[in-house]
Each structure stands twice: as structure tokens, then as C-alpha cells.
Amino acid sequence: MILSTNPLLLARSLNNYIIPSYDLLKSLLLVDQKVLTTFKRSSLVDIANNMVPNISLLRQLGVPHSVICSFVMNNPRIAFNKHTRFVEAVNKVKEMGFDPMKTAFVIAIHAVIKQPIPESKLELYKRWGWSKDIALLAFKRQPHCMLLSEEKITKAMDFFVNKMGCSAADIARYPLVLSFSLEKRIIPRCSVFQILLAKGLLKNDLSLSTFLKHSERYFLEKFVIKFQDDIPQLLDVYQGKTNLLEIGS
């Protein structure tokens, strides 16, 4: 199974590469299945010059073991990137004020290595009202916002700004909302939000992030089931079975 997903392993020495890589990953991840998952996702890695020093650097900075493990398993190509480039990304992330003790630190490293905050991405956010400083602040709060495709950013910003009337500053305060699925999460929940607000069942100062960040179970219990006596069609609206316009004021 590993060879089918990563056939390049066939070209590597069993004694000089595969076994040393396995031993290092096993000492870090502890569980065989996690090691195998990492092997499947990784390309050819220079153990001595990249894998070992990159992990050591994260440890020296105080990055928690659990965060390092997750980073290595989910993004091995980033975690084992060329050491000089990895160090540059780490230094840039540190200069921006990211805390090595938090998961956002390695997410920011991922973002900087994969796509070093290109001007085109900054220009896109700028067109939606973000200054460069606001964009960088949003990146610090949620590094993943710079990993999103321009299409996804555009669709999400268009919905929040033009359909929901949100300001660019509101979105920048909680940029994680940009990464949510527009069809599966944002539109259904915002439809419920608009109805409850129009019916006077919610406070005007309740933020959209409160609506979007919680689990499905919490959202249903707190904002749908709770108000079904007042608005029987609310669940249908949430599930896309009833149009928002079909519910009268």
C-alpha cells in the first residue's frame, strides 16, 4: 500500500534510508500506523540534512511534542523541507510574533514555505478592503487564510460582504470563517442567522463567527431546535429544503 502511494521508496536503500527514516519517525510518532501514514505522504527526504535538524529546531524552540507529531504526520513535505529554507521560514514566523507553543506556529511555517504571502494574495484581500497591515494581522490570527485559493477567498468574501453586509474588519478579526465550506456551512448557518435576527430572536451584537465556529451538534441545539416552536420551518431552511424568502416576517 505504501509503495503504491509512494513508489519512489523503491529507489531508496533499505539500510541507508528506509530503516533510518522509520526509526526516527517511530521515535517521534511512537505508533506504527502514524509512521506508515507519514511515509505515504512524504517524498524523498534527506534524513541527515533536513529531517533531523528540522525536528531538532522545532524542539529547541519549545514547540510541543504533540504539535510536532501532528505537523510531521500531516505535512511531512513541509516539515522535512530543505533545512536552509525551513530555517528562513521559522525565522520569518518568529519575527511576525507567532508563539512556538501554539499550533498556529507550525501552520504559519507551512504557509510561508508553501506560499510566502505573495503580493497577489495581499492584493486580493486589499480589493476587499484589507490593508496590508490588516492582512498580516489576519495571517497572524489564522495563518491558513493565506493557504486558501483565490477563488475560495473571492467567493467567501463576496458572500460575507455583499450578501451578509459584513465589514472587512469584521472578517479580519476572525479570518477562520473564510476556510469554512460556503455550501455546507456558511450559507445554511447564515440563513438561520438572518431569520432569527429578523424575528428578533437574537441579539444584534451576536457575531457571525459565533454562528460559524461551533460544532454541528452545538449549532443545531443552540440555534435551530431551540427556536423551532417559534419558527417551525427553521430546520428546513437550514437543510436547504425551504427558501429564506418563503418565511414571512
General description of the model:
The chain has about 250 residues and is mainly α. About 65% of the residues lie in helices and about 0% in strands. The chain contains 16 helices and no strands. Helix 2 crosses helix 3. It is elongated, with a radius of gyration of 22 Å. The N and C termini lie far apart (about 55 Å). The N terminus is likely disordered.
Keywords:
249 residues, mainly alpha, 16 helices, disordered N terminus
Helix content range: 55-70%
**Secondary-structure element string:** HHHHHHHHHHHHHHHH
Number of helices: 16
Query: First CA to last CA: what distance?
Result: 57 Å
Mean pLDDT: 84
What best-fitting shape do the alpha-carbon axes yield?
A: elongated
